[in-house]
Here is the input.
Amino acid sequence: MDALFYVYILATRKGGSIYVGVTNDLHRRVFEHKTHAIEGFTARYNIDRLVYFEVFESIEAAIAREKEAEEVAAGVESRADRAREPGVARLGRGLRAVIVGRSRLSASLRPG
Here is the structure.
């Protein structure tokens, strides 16, 4: 069986902070986030809710998508500030996210 790689997005709760990562074992990695097994950003801000993932057959494709998702996530906050009202932001390449309040991405990323 060939290896699979996952790009995943975690969130605190609706309207909270998000984290984008890549792994070859999604179950293990989410468990590590939930138990704060690894110190860092997600443990510090209690980001442990899996809200979205994609599967890839190559690590190169997964890393490229992770970088794209990180750029998109960083841009969501500034778009929300400019809009100053809830709405749906197109995130590119089939992703969209509901923006809640002034500055946070909701926990509802989905293809579409």
About this structure: Confidence is low (pLDDT under 50) at residues 84-112.
